[in-house]
Design goal:
Arc Repressor Mutant, subunit A, two-stranded antiparallel sheet, 7 helices, mainly alpha, 5% strand
Length: 161
């Protein structure tokens, strides 16, 4: 199953709060209080986000954290890479893959194309778009009901028998 970690999800909440205050500095404790996350978790996330260049920090009495760029200029891919590392659905999907079967594998190229498509989709969604629609009710999509090329082909093959 492809799923990002809770920490990555929480990092999005932290970034959303920094975006909401529009350039104002927030302390780690302020972010924790505003998001409902623990101070330890927020501190860990802010360090990772700062290292990744998504957040700027300033020390001192007037210090705190703020977004390094506008929410429109931060992609979902950048957030995921900051917390999870490179987007890679298989070992051979990364630049420095370490698969013993790479030289004889016949499916690696297809997985790499899928990986690129996922990464490009994540690149196209900005933090601003993730934040769009406050108060929206979550809509869950049953992916089993989504018609795909393989599902359609399987149904067609079954009907032909």
């Amino acid at each position: 199953m492809l799923r990002m970690s809770k920490l990555t999800d929480y990092a999005t909440l932290v970034l959303a709060e920094l975006a909401r205050v529009d350039g104002a500095m927030l302390s780690s404790a302020d972010v924790a209080a505003r998001t409902g996350l623990t101070a330890t978790t927020v501190s860990k996330l802010l360090k990772s986000l700062t290292r990744a260049g998504l957040v700027n920090s300033q020390r001192g009495a007037q210090g705190g954290y703020l977004l390094a760029r506008s929410p429109q200029q931060i992609s979902a891919a950048e957030v995921i890479v900051a917390l999870e590392g490179p987007v890679a659905i298989t070992e051979c999907s990364t630049e420095h893959g370490n698969c013993d079967l790479e030289s004889v594998c016949r499916v690696g190229g297809a997985w790499q194309r899928i990986n690129v498509a996922i990464y490009q989709a994540l690149e196209e969604i900005s933090l601003a778009e993730l934040l769009d629609g406050p108060g929206e009710t979550l809509t869950y999509i049953d992916l089993r009901s989504v018609t795909t090329r393989s599902a359609t082909a399987a149904r067609t093959a079954t009907r032909a028998r």
